[in-house]
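Supplementary Methods S3. Complex input for the fe (ii) ion-bound model.
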Amino acid sequence: MDTKANVIIPKQAGGALAQVPMEKVIMRQDFSSWSIESLVDYIVNIQHRYCKENAAIIYDLAQKVANDGTTHPSLTGLGPAMFLFLHDLLNHMKKEEDILFPNIRQLVKNKRRSGKAKYTTFGLIKEWTGLMQGEHHSCCNDLDLFSQLTNNCMLPAHSSNCCKLLFNKMKEFKAAFLMNVHLENNVLFPKALAEDEEPEEDNPVNVEFRNSDVDRKRSQNK
Ligand SMILES: [Fe+2]
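Predicted complex, serialized as structure tokens:
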């Protein structure tokens, strides 16, 4: 077992997709045919980048709307709630970029180099994809709460321009985030998990364990 291969050094994801502007990307791509590396590049450089760039804009707008004396009372709690949501979301993306994605990249790289029988992540990919799916669920619950607070982004009467901007941005942000969740939950994670599965008969650790187990039982029977 190559233990050195399990040490992951966080790094910035890069790639050809890094320079592709958001508006040029066709959202209904057949992502299932993409390689794992291309998916990770796209998620980090297009989807995560969009969320990071727009998080500050949304928070500023939510603060302005909450502090606006003419704002509907139901929107006064939007600023603090938005802060917590965006804080959790940015932390979530950082964990994916610092831990899960580098390990997925390393898994693909090592399996390509070593073949199925010589590399395992010891369950790390399974554990972390599960954790990240749980956080996606929690973020989606927050977005549902915002939908309730804003009556599905229906503008209150006599809304300020700031409120209009915020609601438009929130709709756009929600659509982009749900697309990101779809790509991770339904395309990237299943691909990574399939890559992480090792047939038992091909795994030298298991074979070795089975042999030593048999030897032990034989000696006990003597
Ligand atoms: Fe995620």
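The chain has five helices and no strands. Residues 34-221 form one domain.
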